[in-house]
């Protein structure tokens, strides 16, 4: 870790400070919100629409022990069982690619395969995107992320039109009706082949497995390809044939696997241009408009302006941001990546989450900037960044193999019996950045204002919620998803599992982040705190700003309206240790 002074006074944090007070943000409905009213002590979990409260431990263990068919195994079985029949289906009058979380024209396996099939058959390629308000509700998709997706669709439509490929966008109000509507559209277009990329959440895997079989029943072929991960889930197993649940050995296997097969980093180009007749034949499809956000996902005009200036949409922006990062900041990445007051990270997570940039493209491009083709060698900043991007693959692999984490379960089932608190006042203070712990409050205010927060701070605030406040970690997991522009279930769930010690590869439960030490170490001069907490900008003492009430600045902090700490660190730590130990000592159902 660099000396404290060395890392300061370089560049300001990537996102601008708030232009309005937290109270105004709270009143708008999209800033610091109140706890979800369906979160109750009786349920013991943060409920989600369209889902039961929580899977039983018995059923979760059955998935873990391979006694139940995993959703990804069902999809693979559907593809395997139908392969010969699908290959025998004659060409129709069109081929369709279904965009999901892969909103780009370049390096897109499903799109590339669809384009090749259309060229082989001598027919046009039609692109399709289904807007599903119920899916956004079920998956807790943040309004800022919905806005980013819809803006990206505008960019994607323009890119495809340049190739005479129409992008048909339709809203299907009820999520259960999506497969049937897709079958209807394929019939209307007389399409014989449908291509899509895999999404690894449980509902999406089950939906696609059923749609593969339903297509075949109607004489059509659906192919679902692995695209999101550099190495497909299930490929990496330990010496005894088990899936990895710890990152470090998994990463070594991941690197070795790619080194053995470098073609995994081969990149794909744009789809072929459609025949000239496509524009006339599908004129109505080219007239499709991108809908507005559903009422429950709308932003205010002020929020639209703010978020759109922070997060320009589309794959061109993604590639430009990647280029700038590799040319301007990768050299300092290892040194600065943990300092939230520095512009030390790539801020590409929003593009990975929406698929405007593939992990393959990111890693291959970083590899091309390196002095070696080895993913774990060469320039320190590049190899560290590659290892960070790889975490996204890791969490997708975990999701595919242990699907019960999609169902309100902690990865470590022995943590089911921890008695969580459900204190609405504490949760509201955490949400709004008013806990009295400056580094925690600065991070939550950045999240509420930007729809994004630095990864180091994500860990700090998650640990604080789960271990200082002993609030159910799923309440925090939900709040993040409802506010993050880069909300991705697997990565978000994995991060919360790490910080609450309930997930894969976690810190032990007795390792509890001390927010004061974290603040002093990663924001030594208080630059980040002063950016996001205007009440403390007048505190000149770089020691006192981390703990104004404990270091002689109580009067000043109180006069400016900054709250006192809502819990005591030592007492909270002792309570947490006792509560976790007690929960781990009980039998799980």
TrEMBL record:
Domain of life of the source: Eukaryota
Residues engaged in binding FAD: 333, 345-349, 385, 388-395, 486-488
Cofactor binding note: Binds 1 FAD per subunit.
Residues annotated as site: Electron transfer via tryptophanyl radical: 420, 473, 496
Keyword Flavoprotein (UniProt): yes
Classification via InterPro entries: Crypto/Photolyase_FAD-like_sf, Crypto/Photolyase_N_sf, Cryptochr/Photolyase_FAD-bd, Cryptochrome/DNA_photolyase_1, DNA_photolyase_1_CS_C, DNA_photolyase_N, Rossmann-like_a/b/a_fold
Domain Photolyase/cryptochrome alpha/beta, residue spans: 93-230
Pfam family, one: FAD_binding_7
Gene3D superfamilies according to UniProt: 1.25.40.80, DNA Cyclobutane Dipyrimidine Photolyase, subunit A, domain 3 (1.10.579.10), HUPs (3.40.50.620)
Cofactor(s) the record lists: FAD; (6R)-5,10-methylene-5,6,7,8-tetrahydrofolate
GO process terms (BP): circadian regulation of gene expression; entrainment of circadian clock by photoperiod; nucleobase-containing compound metabolic process; response to stress
Residue ranges, annotated region (Disordered): 1-45
Gene Ontology molecular function: deoxyribodipyrimidine photo-lyase activity; DNA binding; FAD binding
Keywords carried by this UniProt record: Chromophore, FAD, Flavoprotein
One Gene Ontology cellular component: nucleus
Composition skew (Basic residues), residue ranges: 1-13
Family to which this protein belongs: Belongs to the DNA photolyase class-1 family.
The name this protein goes by in its record: Photolyase/cryptochrome alpha/beta domain-containing protein
């Amino acid at each position: 870790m660099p000396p404290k002074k060395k890392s300061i006074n370089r560049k300001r944090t990537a996102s601008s400070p708030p232009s309005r007070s937290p109270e105004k943000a709270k009143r708008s409905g999209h800033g610091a919100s109140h706890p979800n009213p369906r979160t109750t002590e009786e349920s013991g979990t943060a409920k989600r629409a369209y889902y039961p409260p929580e899977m039983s431990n018995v059923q979760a263990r059955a998935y873990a022990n391979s006694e139940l068919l995993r959703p990804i195994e069902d999809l693979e079985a559907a593809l395997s069982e139908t392969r010969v029949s699908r290959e025998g289906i004659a060409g129709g009058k069109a081929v369709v690619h279904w965009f999901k979380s892969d909103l780009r024209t370049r390096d897109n396996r499903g799109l590339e395969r669809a384009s090749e099939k259309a060229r082989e058959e001598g027919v046009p390629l039609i692109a399709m995107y289904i807007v599903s308000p119920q899916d956004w509700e079920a998956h807790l998709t943040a309004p800022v992320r919905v806005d980013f997706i819809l803006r990206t669709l505008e960019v994607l439509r323009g890119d495809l039109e340049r190739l005479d490929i129409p992008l048909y966008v339709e809203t299907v109000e009820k999520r259960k009706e999506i497969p049937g509507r897709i079958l209807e559209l394929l019939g209307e277009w007389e399409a014989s082949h449908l291509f899509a990329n895999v999404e690894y959440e449980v509902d999406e895997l089950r939906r696609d497995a059923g749609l593969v079989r339903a297509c075949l029943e109607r004489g059509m072929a659906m192919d679902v390809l692995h695209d999101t991960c550099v190495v497909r889930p299930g490929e990496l197993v330990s010496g005894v044939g088990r899936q990895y649940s710890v990152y470090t050995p998994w990463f070594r296997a991941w690197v070795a696997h790619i080194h053995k097969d470098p073609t995994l980093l081969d990149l794909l180009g744009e789809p072929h241009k459609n025949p000239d007749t496509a524009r006339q034949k599908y004129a109505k499809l080219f007239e499709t408009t991108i809908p507005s956000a559903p009422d429950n996902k709308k932003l205010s005009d002020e929020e639209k302006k703010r978020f759109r200036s922070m997060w320009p949409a589309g794959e061109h922006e993604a590639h430009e941001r990647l280029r700038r990062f590799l040319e301007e900041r990768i050299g300092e990445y290892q040194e600065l990546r943990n300092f939230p007051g520095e512009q030390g990270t790539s801020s590409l997570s929003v593009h990975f989450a929406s698929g405007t940039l593939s992990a393959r493209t990111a890693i291959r491009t970083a590899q091309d900037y390196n002095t070696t083709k080895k993913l774990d060698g060469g320039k320190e900043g590049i190899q560290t960044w590659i290892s960070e991007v790889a975490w996204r693959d890791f969490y997708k692999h975990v999701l595919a193999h242990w699907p019960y984490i999609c169902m309100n379960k902690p990865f470590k089932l022995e943590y089911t019996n921890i008695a969580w608190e459900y204190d609405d006042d504490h949760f509201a203070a955490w949400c709004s950045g008013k806990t009295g712990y400056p580094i925690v409050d600065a991070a939550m205010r950045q999240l509420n204002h930007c729809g994004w927060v630095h990864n180091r701070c994500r860990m700090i605030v998650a640990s604080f919620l789960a271990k200082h406040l002993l609030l159910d970690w799923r309440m925090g997991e939900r709040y993040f998803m409802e506010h993050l522009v880069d909300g991705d279930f697997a990565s978000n769930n994995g991060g919360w599992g790490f910080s609450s010690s309930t997930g894969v590869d976690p810190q032990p439960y007795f390792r509890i982040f001390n927010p004061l030490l974290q603040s002093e170490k990663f924001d030594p001069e208080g630059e980040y705190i002063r950016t996001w907490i205007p009440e403390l900008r007048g505190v000149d003492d770089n020691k006192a700003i981390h703990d104004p009430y404990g270091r002689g600045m109580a009067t000043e902090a109180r006069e400016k309206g900054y709250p006192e700490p809502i819990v005591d660190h030592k007492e909270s730590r002792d309570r947490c240790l006792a509560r976790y130990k007690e929960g781990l000592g009980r039998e799980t159902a």
